[in-house]
Amino acid sequence: MSTIIAESVGGAAAILTTFCWVPQAIRTIRLRDTRAISLPAQLAFGTGLALWLTYGLMIASWPLIAANAVSLALVSVIVATKLRYG
């Protein structure tokens, strides 16, 4: 398989899976309502993102690096809001 095709698929996946968190982060910031958000699940997910980001850096894969860096930032905002407003 062509590297360009593989990177394109990875880039498309990165965009979709990263930006699906934007509405949740915006809603959490605006409403400050985090009752329905599980803190343990978000912490586990954030840890997984950090590991995927580390892996992406190790293999120098821009889709993994970009997607996981942005997703980790968004999930961190959600976790911070959960910790602050309960």
UniProtKB/TrEMBL annotation:
Its main location: membrane. The keyword Transmembrane applies. GO terms for cellular component: membrane. It is found in: Membrane. It holds the Pfam family PQ-loop. The chain crosses the membrane at residues 36-55, 61-80. The keyword S-adenosyl-L-methionine does not apply. It comes from the Bacteria. It is a multi-pass membrane protein. Keywords: Membrane, Transmembrane, Transmembrane helix. GO terms for molecular function: sugar transmembrane transporter activity. NCBIfam families: SemiSWEET_2. This is SemiSWEET transporter. It comes from Enterovirga aerilata.
